[in-house]
Amino acid sequence: MTAVPPAARPRLPLTVVGGFLGAGKTTLLNRLLCQSQGRRLAVLVNDFGALNIDAELVASSAGDTFALTNGCVCCSIGDDLTAALIAVIESPMPFDAVVIEASGVSDPWRIAQVALVDPGLSLDGVIVLVDASAALAQSRAPLLADTLERQLKAADLIVVNHCDRAADDERARVRDWIASVAGATPQFETTQAQVPLPMLSGLALPDMQLAPASEPAHRDPHGHADGAHEHEHDDPAHGALFDTWSCRPARVFSSTALRAWLTEPPPGILRLKGVLRTGTQDSDSTWSELQFAGRHGTLRTVPAPAAGPALVAIGLRGRLPMAALSALFDAPG
Q1: Residues 199-239 pLDDT 10s
Q2: May I ask the CATH class of domain 6-196?
Q3: pLDDT of residue 240
Q4: What pLDDT, on a 0 to 100 scale, did the predictor assign at position 218?
Q5: 3-state secondary structure of 151
Q6: Which residues pair with 244 in a beta bridge?
Q7: What is the DSSP letter of 165?
Q8: Which of 65, 179, 233, 242 is deepest in the core (most CB within 10 A)?
Q9: Considering only CA atoms, which of 17, 21, 45 is closest in space to residue 105?
Q10: Alpha-carbon distance 292 to 269, whole Å?
Q11: 262-to-84, 106, 146, 259, 296 alpha-carbon distances in Å
Q12: 205-329 adopts what CATH topology?
């Protein structure tokens, strides 16, 4: 593999994983490392020893770094997060994404802000885990309440973990408490931090399976493009947990209008990404990449894509606002 100069690389997607002690962050990181699906991930952690990486996955180790057989690397942050990120960005062999584990008592949004100022990074999302069996007691503890609420308010997706340890009525109260703090931020209930990769990273969004740009995509009565409904993941049941919508938007969009839409999109969208034309008319249009994850969205200028305009979105089954998405992006100009 030939080394790519840092200046010639695309911006590196950054995901921050937060949550209080015992919520399941380390389990989630292990899943990401083991199920990277061919993507080169750099995972930065505080408690290096807690990951307990399977020895069969380790290709080599040096100091506080493990290189894995699937191309991923796991490093200890140490005392300098900035230095660790610079090392990842300037690595001779480029990574596809970087994931940072926030400490159990830290504010993940402060870490995520690094992505907003470093030109080599773009924020892909903030994932916060909650222990369903302990959250209510923790929320009533005076010394913990503020920390927990800050974490929830930072999240693009809240993973309610350890649901097997909580009764139905307790899980309902946890959902209500989270909503009272984080509003409409999407919640996903699970055990053992089993979360479909497309929910965690825009890089893992399902293939759009669209017709060529010169042909219309065929849709079923529910608005799905052909083949875009069910997808295979590490757990076959995950394909039944979310819906997918996609289109090839033909018209030119107003950047101002899109940014306003991104501040308050319709509820139910976990992730939305793609490339479309923006400007005032065809002759003056540019290409822009649109990204949205849970609560945060961005729009930035990019080179013209060879495949033409395309967008894909996912949401939990039955909650993805397909009609609203089609009305905005798939309607004639």
Answers
A1: 888 887 765 544 333 333 333 334 444 333 333 334 434 45
A2: alpha beta
A3: 66
A4: 35
A5: helix
A6: 314
A7: G
A8: 242
A9: 21
A10: 8
A11: 31, 27, 28, 5, 7
A12: Hypothetical Protein Yjia; Chain: A;domain 2 (3.30.1220)
